[in-house]
Input
Amino acid sequence: TFSVFTLGDALITFNPSETGPLRYVSAFTRKVGGAELNFAIGCARLGLHTKWTSRLGGDEFGRVIYNFARGEGVDMANVEFVENYPTSLNFKEIREDGSGKTFYYRYQSPILTLEPEDITEAMFDGIDLIHLTGVFLAIDPKNLAIVKRVLEIASEKEIKVSFDPNIRLKLWTLEQAKAAYQEIFPYVDILLTGLDEIEMIIGDASEAALEQCAIDFNIGQLVIKDGGNGARLYQDQTWYTKEAFKVSPIDTVGAGDGFDAGYIYAMLHGYSPEDTLEFANGVGALVTTVSGDNEGLPYLQEVKALISKEKIIER
Ligand code: ATP
Output
């Protein structure tokens, strides 16, 4: 089994039981969210050993997140509870026309108690890949030092690094994000990014500009996710393209995190570039068919079944 390391914050999401202005909604369904945790759950469901590093509120909701992640088989050795730091919450509003809004109740996140010194070399024993995202960087400027410490250990130990910018303009400005990415990209082996997102970051999403970005930052695999259009990969001066699976999406949130988990699974298992993209597209597509950020993350057999069925239809 391959082992994957990730690092990030998690929060509790309350989904409304009915549509309409939030002030009239009185019942909610409690869910667990967080980009890096979604990725970790995705990897664990596929069968990867997945270590998540985080800090949780020393409260009832912190317990909910802990038990949920542990129940999914995520390795919780690097997860600690912090007293007097309430778990962050997020209430969703869904209007009759399907549009949505998010109301954050983010206190000082418990993960802000994590310091660079807490990242030890021993945490990376046996780790084959480190996955980081821009969400952790966006939460607080001090997290850049933590990420740099992780990246230094990755270089020393020659562990592959994947990164998803996961830009969240509600948490920081584009200028701040770009400045942080400039420092991170040189360490990244696999960049997993949305098409719109990379266009915002480098200002141009033409193939020539993307190729130049891969060269400038020495990124071995530049992966472009494009929703219902599928995904592309630039590797060894070659472009690979795979169309998305035809599914009926009901909730696309979390598709990108699932795609990342699928990509990493297939890449670690030595799939060809095309098969890696296909497998990742399969995971992303399946996530969109289930409501919730991580509920739709498939088990290995489900992805394999989707892929083989597609092949039969193609013939
Ligand atoms: P987010 O971070 O909001 O989840 P993202 O930009 O990282 O989004 P998307 O490009 O929206 O990710 O989706 C990731 C992948 O999921 C796509 O590359 C594709 O494989 C799959 N996917 C997303 N939407 C669809 C869809 N409508 N039909 C089929 N597959 C989809």
In short: The chain has a mean pLDDT of 95.
